[in-house]
Design brief:
The protein has 150 residues and is α/β, with parallel strands linked by helices. The chain is built from five helices and seven strands; from the N terminus they run βαβαββαβαββα.
Length: 150
């Protein structure tokens, strides 16, 4: 089974970092899971698809057409912000890039579920998150955390 890493966050100013994270994850054979919309989510998918990787979008609404154009597989939930639990749970690890309140909820769900969470600058500060200074370090820390027994 392929590893899945959820990339969470928001903010146009973090798109470059998110695209790099998506690309690096795809290069390492990971499927990139996001909330499927724009900004960080779209950028992570764009990076993954550009590197030949697979993407999964878990949408809050009821229409597949709402997914960003880089989403390969689309899950329509119709449950609004509650889909944040599905995004967090679907990743073997989680990388936060930028973000706000929705990102905080996804981080909290991930930590509650025992998923390792790595954050880049701009992500909300939450206890229990490991910090990275670059997309390369974020991917390395996230994947290394999956090798450790939990």
């Amino acid at each position: 089974m392929a590893r899945q890493v959820s990339v969470i966050g928001s903010g146009r100013e973090w798109e470059e970092a998110a695209e790099k994270v998506g690309s690096l994850l795809a290069q390492r054979g990971c499927t990139v899971v996001t909330g499927g919309l724009d900004e960080v989510m779209e950028a992570a998918h764009r990076g993954a698809r550009s590197a030949g990787g697979a993407t999964i979008a878990i949408l809050p609404g009821e229409r597949r057409e709402a997914a960003n154009p880089w989403a390969e597989h689309v899950v329509v939930t119709g449950i609004g912000h509650a889909r944040n639990l599905a995004v967090a749970a679907s990743g073997d690890a989680v990388i936060a890039v930028g973000g706000s309140y929705g990102t905080i909820s996804e981080i909290a769900f991930a930590l509650r579920l025992g998923r390792p969470v790595v954050a880049l600058e701009g992500a909300p500060a939450v206890e229990g998150v490991e910090w990275a200074s670059s997309p390369e370090e974020a991917v390395e820390l996230a994947l290394r955390s999956l090798e450790r027994p939990r």
